[in-house]
Every structure is written in structure tokens, then in C-alpha cells.
Amino acid sequence: KMLSEPLQTMLTTMVIAIALALPATLYLVIDNVQKRGVDIESSTQITVFVRKAAKPEAITGLEGKLKTITGVGAVEYISAQQALLEFKALSGFGSALRYLEDNPLPAVFLVQPLVKDSVDLAQTNKIIEAIAALPAVDDVQIDMAWLERLHSLIEMGHKIALALGVLLGIGVLLVIGNTIRLAIESRRDEIIVVKLVGGTNPYVRRPFLYTGLLLGLFGALIAAIMLFSGLQWMSGSMTNLVSLYQSQYRLEGLGIAGFCTLMLLGGVFGLGGAWIAVSRHLRDIEPR
Description:
The protein is α+β, with helices and mostly antiparallel strands. The protein is built from 9 helices and 4 strands. A 4-stranded antiparallel beta sheet has the order 2-3-1-4. Helix 6 runs antiparallel to helix 8 (201-244), helix 6 (144-186) packs parallel to helix 9 and helix 8 (201-244) runs antiparallel to helix 9. It is elongated, with a radius of gyration of 31 Å.
């Protein structure tokens, strides 16, 4: 029946595909920003400035205490002389430093908190408070504001994707439900004849459920193809862009798990829309 009406079937599956592809695309964008858009691990690095008057013994003791703080993954020491050499090489003001009598830069420790899947802002704040309370520590710096903004934006993006997915999911249910309703009406006489010869409602319902399931699966498959094609189309431009920043960043697609989830959602929406339509309209068709 679906193959006998290819235009109607294609239009229905394309509507379903677009409805599934839109929230999936938004989810992929958010997922790529969260995983690859920024270097979260290095951005949470805490800079600990050592007091200028601190003695070598105090610096050594401070390093040992930093390593014992819960949540600290790695500690790197940069002496004042090393910091001065790096400043001369990178700042472009190396010649001006000749006029300074003393090295104005303090020794620093670079503290890297443990990072798993995402940054724990509360844990990072606890680490900062613990470091600030240590002797020989002059100042502790980390740019937490942009991390909080990033997490807020990602959280908001996930909510938008979820809301859009729910709304478009309802649209898929309505599209499939309307398609099944039209199919039921076009086969009203056939349904009546089947019921006259003893066909039960589950027997009559089954082909329409199959139709809704297939429409949902075909729509999900086309949505996956659209996402894959769009990703391949964007990959070339993204590769050229990130190469200018000497980065190895690559766009990530759905993957096997995402593809299976998309197919599952398409099948569930298709089957659900067909079930609602059949349950609503089949009871009105009875032999007289």
C-alpha cells in the first residue's frame, strides 16, 4: 500500500525526518560545544602565586601540601626566573625588562583539578578556598565566570533541545495519526467486510500499526542521512578553520548509539501515532 502511493509516502517520511532532524541537530551542536568546543581541562587550571619573600623550604612545603588537597590532579612549579624567561620570549617586551633592577615576577604553581566528564564548579571552589588558606600563598586566580556562563548556556541549550524535541515529537504523532486516519477512511469498506467475516479489532489494527512503525523508521533513517550529509558538508570548512588555530578539533556525529536512539524514537513516535489514530477511529467503523 505504501509503495503504491510513493509521493504521499515520501512527503510523510520527509516531514517526519525534518521533525526528528531539527532537535537532533541542535543536540549535536550542543554536544560538540560541550565536548570539543573548548579545552575544559586546561581552562580550569588554577594559578597559585607564591609570596615574593617565601624561602625555598616554604615553597617545597607548599608544593607538598598542594598535592595532598582533595581533587587536585597535578601540580607544576614555575620559578620566578623561569617565568621571567617565558615572559621575555612571549610578551614582546623582553628589551624593556633590561631596565628593571629585580625580577618583578613571582614563582607560581599551576594546579590542575581532576576533571572527568564535566567541570564540578563547587569542587573547584573548594580547592581554591583550601589553597588560599595555605601559608606562602599570595594570590589564587582562575577565570570561573566564563565557566559558569558556559555551563549555563549548555544547560539552557539542552533544555531548548528537549523542548523542541517534545514539540516536534507531538508534531510527528499528529502527522502519522492524520496519515493513518486517512488510510482508515479510505479502507472503511474493506474493514467492514473483514469484521463481517469475523476479523477482530486487533487483527484490523495490526496493518495500520505496521504502517505507522515503518513511516517512523523511514523518517528516522532519512533524518540520520540528513545529519550525516550535513556533517560531511561542514567538516571541510571546519577542518580549514581549526587548522588556522593549530587545533585537532573534529566534528562528532551521532555515532552508533545516537543512530540507534534516533531510530528508536522514530519507531516509537510512528507506532504511538498509529495506535492513537487507530484506537480513536476504528471503534467508529462497525458493520450495520
